[in-house]
Amino acid sequence: MDLWISIGVGLALLVAGGELLVRGASSAARKLGVSPLLIGLTLVGFGTSTPELVTSLQAALAGSPGIAVGSVVGSNISNALLILGLTALIATVGVDQKAFLRDGPVLALVTAGALWALHQGTLTRTMGMAAVGVLIVYIVVVWLLERQRPDNAEGERIEDEAAMKSGLGGSPWLALLLAVVGIGVTIVGARFLVDGSITLARSLGVSDTLVGLTVVAVGTSAPELATSVIAALRKQGDVALGNIVGSNLYNLLGILGVTAIVSPVPVPPEMLDLDVWVLAGATMAMIIFALRGLRVGRLEGFLLVAGWCSYTAWLAWKAGVLG
């Protein structure tokens, strides 16, 4: 029980710390005159991935590559299958055609690049710097394109998200202090989560890769899950797809990239047999469903959730957790 409490406390602190960081940094930037579009693309986009980033960094430094890499791969699988699927079951997810025709192929290429990098056996610093470089170029290109057409739906979504996260009162210095507190809370939460996850894997006699792909991945994806479900309940299902695509891009380029720069990460060999191909399949399914009719309906949502349940059950059965 103490073990699960440790994991639960870690996840709660990660979510709370990430939220404090995003709100504090976004509010400070807004008060200092930074445009909502740029805030949404940088501070909000990268800030919401802070739980995954800090978790992967601490896991890599703790010598647990299964959690460091598995949490990112599992998070992207959960985003594409579970979170998008649940959102579509609640309300049809609309697709901004121009934005998705731009971002969908980028996500497909980045996923293919990640598969190649993972199959090299080690995520090196050179790979990490290349990934972060691609992310910077992507952010700059999107910012330039969206700034030229301010009335489009995707630009409004990014700006609305930034405005929602940057509504704190007070001085910018107070907001920056809140962001610093958020970083500290996130670091503490990641320590609880990583230590608890490693201990959980040992107590169950399974690899830390399995725990990273499931418990850690779904737990650190909680902010995306909450955002998408709330949007669906408000009949704003179209918000979910942009969040998920953006999150998956930040995970593969930003989180794996920064982690590899700080500490090169060996890739667990067992992940190459199935998990990376599930990542590729989940990404392609999301892209195909989104382009098919420019909507993701309840049927597609059911298929996505069923795919995630089948994958998770297979992992549990393979590890002997289901008997």
The N- and C-terminal alpha carbons lie at a distance of 21 Å
Percent of residues in beta strands: under 5%
CATH topology: A middle domain of Talin 1
Order of helices and strands: HHHHEHEHHHHHHEHEH
The total tally of domains equals 1
- Average pLDDT value? 80
Order of strands, main sheet, comes to 1-4
Tell me the number of helical segments per DSSP (H or I, 4 or more residues long).
13
Rg calculated over all Cα atoms: 19 Å
Form type: globular
Task: Give a count of the beta strands, DSSP E runs of length 2 or more.
Answer: 4
Characterize the biggest β-sheet.
Answer: 2 strands, antiparallel
| Share of helix, binned | over 70%
CATH class: Mainly Alpha
CATH superfamily name? NCX, central ion-binding region
Structural class, by secondary structure, is: mainly alpha
CATH architecture: Up-down Bundle
Taking pLDDT < 50 over at least 5 consecutive residues as the criterion, the unreliable ranges are: none
Can you walk through the features of this model?
- 80% of the residues lie in helices and 2% in strands.
- The protein has helices spanning 2-31, 36-47, 50-61, 65-90, 97-118, 125-148, 153-165, 172-204, 208-220, 222-233, 238-262, 275-291, 298-318, and strands spanning 93-94, 122-123, 265-266, 295-296.
- The strands form two sheets. It has a two-stranded antiparallel ribbon with strand order 1-4. A two-stranded antiparallel sheet has the order 2-3.
- It has 323 residues and is mainly α.
- The protein has a single domain (2-318), classed as NCX, central ion-binding region (A middle domain of Talin 1, Up-down Bundle).
- Helix 3 crosses helix 8.
- The radius of gyration is 19 Å and the shape is globular.
- The chain has 13 helices and four strands.
- The mean pLDDT is 80.
